[in-house]
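Final report, results section. Input specification for complex C-07:
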Amino acid sequence: MTELLRIEDLHVSFKTDDGMVRAVDGVSLTLNAGETVAIVGESGSGKTVTSLSVMGLHKKGQAEISGSISLSDHGTFKDVVHLSDDEIRDIRGRAVAMIFQDPMSSLHPYYKIGSQLAEGYLVHNRGKKKEAMARALEMLDLVGIPEPAKRAQEFPHQFSGGMRQRVMIAMALMNSPQILIADEPTTALDVTVQAQILALLSKLKKEFNMGILLITHDLGVVAQVADRVNVMYAGRIVEEGPVDDIFYSPLAPYTLGLLKSVPRVSKNNERLKAIPGQPPSLINLPVGCPFAPRCEYKQHSSEAGCNTTRPALLGTSSTHRSRCHVPEKLRHELFAKELKEVQG
Amino acid sequence: MSEAILKIENLVKHFPTGKGKRGEKEVVKAVDGISFELKAGETIGLVGESGCGKTTAGRTILKLVEPTSGKIIFEDKDITDYSSSKMRAIRAQMQIIFQDPYSALNPRQTIGKIISAPFEIQGITPQEGTKGAVQNLMARVGLNPEHYNRYPHEFSGGQRQRIGIARAIALKPRFIVADEPVSALDVSIQAQVINLLEDLQEEEKISMVFIAHDLSVVQHISDRVAVMYLGKMMEIAATADLYAKPRHPYTTALLSAVPLPDPRSERTREHIILTGDLPSPINPPAGCVFNTRCWKAQDKCRTDVPQLVQLGASQVACHFPEN
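Structure output:
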């Protein structure tokens, strides 16, 4: 497997009037060619901030960033955290590209689709206007937009939501990046259109051997397209592993809580098992495990470290790791029983 | 279940859009002739993609927008032509919960003021005093009554939705339209709010039209489900029947498109991927409105409008129903 991205011990914090917001607090993850890695979490868990860091999109002076983001620029690795603005601009679009949640606000309403696509190509290939337009038509065709030559002459408002998201994907592909970051790519879309876009992303992954970093809060989407999953809570990864391990033998109480709170087909009439309470403020994180105030399992922790120390990311295997003070063997037993109840 | 609390007959809402390309008048056919009944204590889920008219349907039923034609019969009274002053007396019985808990609350009013608004408008002084009643309501929906004097920005999304719910149940309504009440919330918070709605509904015997695009949430909360597409009703059936045996091809496609939180079944399950986009509600297709995206469409579908008819336990509007 070819590694495309390696994030190590990434910290991102923002200074606000109320204090330091620790949005990302020691995140490490990897992405290989030909796989989809999901980052799952609720609002404020730090998933989007992580992905923006990979694109080098935090403004200098506003965010404090430490750690390393080693990214493959078609074979040569570069550390995004320590690159200059010019160097980042050089790899952005060419080595890594991003699609956003809301395709309407990511497209310029006054410019024709074709020229917006060509613009990204021209940044990296100066003066090659004809080539850029040809490439734009090719990409529109690839993402399934009928009559690309005609549609390229139209404006964003003439496209539907799903078609706009296809345009965004075409735009991301203009410079053949190896890494695609998709931040909630289908959240603004209807289910039938979401199914189209997810199928398109899977096709791209296979055809071009791309690595896709998928940011989402939707566990159904994760189950459908992800190969590996990182679950984030309060700025940290609380569990990482292959998609089956995460869904069928979760080891972090938060992951289990998420899986239990989703309404399911088979369990129509039962009460939903919600996670009590709310996510903590990122300014005043609890001293111990950030999930402890909402956790049902902390009484099982032998030395009661939940309220005093942060659990480390440890694992049974090299691929499946989680953060929790409760002994792993006990978690296996407890969680398997609970999961059986909801999954039937 | 007793008899119907709400009867909707052939309800139509068209919005004029100014002028079309050649100068003729155009209308957006947001709701184009829907009929259904809601029994006392029942929850009916109204689902469909954006632009299918489900929100307009909810608002028209409450007469927040005037219907173009059709009938709304609430507790045996035909309220279709009621004036706004005549509606006010009935409003205490019918309430709404909005999707976006951020824009549904006035940022310059305290929570106490927001939740007491229904009492004020209806000129009611509750037995325990307005403040007492509001604090009881806050406790009912899981808010701390001591936060009476706080402002909306001091609350999270889930808490704000609880405030909206407290306001909606203040006057003990018989009927609530909940318009995407949980779609702006995170999964773990969403489950809390759904549980709250179910508890309140059980205790107060409230009938509900639950509008949502999330089919698993709808399945969880509804007794029956109504599927809309381009302003028309495609299928109405008991929840278990609809999910196990969808009759309309559109329902089948919708259900198949929902990704399940189960990777193994996702790998083997076949997803029906509909081609194309929702047609414009200004110029809906002739015949069955779904014919442009339907894999079963025949010539008949392009000319004849299918009527919603009883088929087994379900009501379906399709010339070639499934199963």
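The two ends of chain B are 28 Å apart (CA to CA). Residues 187-204 of chain B form the longest helix (18 residues). This concludes the modelling results for the funded period.
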